Please model this.
Amino acid sequence: MRALAAALLLPLLWLMPTAAQAHIASNGFLVMQVQGQSVSGSIELAVRDVELAVGADANHDGRITWGELRAAEPRLRQYLARNLSLAAQGAACAIDFGPMQINQRVDGNYAWLRLHAHCPTDVQRLVLGYSVLRDIDPSHRGLLTLSAGTVTQTAVLGGSDATTILAIDRASRWRTLVEYLQVGIWHIWSGIDHLLFLLSLLLPAVLLRRHGHWEPVERVRPAFISVLKVVTAFTLAHSITLTLAALELVRLPSRLTESVIAASIVIAALNNIFPLVTESRARIAFAFGLLHGFGFASVLTEMGLPSGARLLALVAFNLGIEAGQLAVVLAVMPVIYALRSAQVYRRALLPWGSAAIAGLALVWLLQRALLSSG
Model:
């Protein structure tokens, strides 16, 4: 039991120094418009990903200045030329990249480059090759929004599928369903902050608070009901605000949203150490789930909802989040239920694991609310 508990706790402690910079998924953003033989648009990569790809931090001080980034621009152009390709009906398109600019997002600065490609024939079927960071960070994905006339479609580039083929004159509803479902699953799995909030609420679900102490539940039913309440409340809350934000009915500043999400993790984790709310964790899940919904909506804001399939894309993305969330719950619950009676769980894993989560989330909170993005 002790070995199993230690195996669960150590990854949290090990992740603390690295996850402070990697808490948001590694995504590139591509926007392209097709008109005849031309493809124009832009590509964005996080500055931290530029460092991984071409080594922009010349003096190795952990901070990348504008001068260092400009010095690395020729290497970045060459890297993109090798790892991004376009072809129309099988014939390669020549890509040119414009001058680099900086775009600031809530998770840091991004290198933004305009791109233009000329194809030998009118584009009817576009073949995209995307292998950016494939050998460095396999979790990296490129989020593409492609427009041609009145047709807008999206795609997730990278991963095991290095090549993506899109028919320009029509957007497949089946492809839209699959793409947004995959993006939803990937977003929850790669969004460490959302997962740690959920984990903070799950850790005490197999315990009861009596006479100032945590005691294990005697049967699986109370634990199941507790988890069901928490997950249902979290799902309902973030589904509401995700829908409102994706349909642009309600908008909040991204820095405020991300800061409050970090604060929610601190509060949920500290509540496991200094319990103030023990029987109503579902209320915490619902209250902060409303803010997490705005966080989930950020990726939809970047990708957009395809015209003619907005509802389908929104439902698929939300289902993807729920599927990814359910997979996490199903993986965690049997383990913590088996450990619930062990002293090491109540006296070590719960408090120290929660302390590690709170400490990491506090770093995020300071980064997001007080410090300038670098």
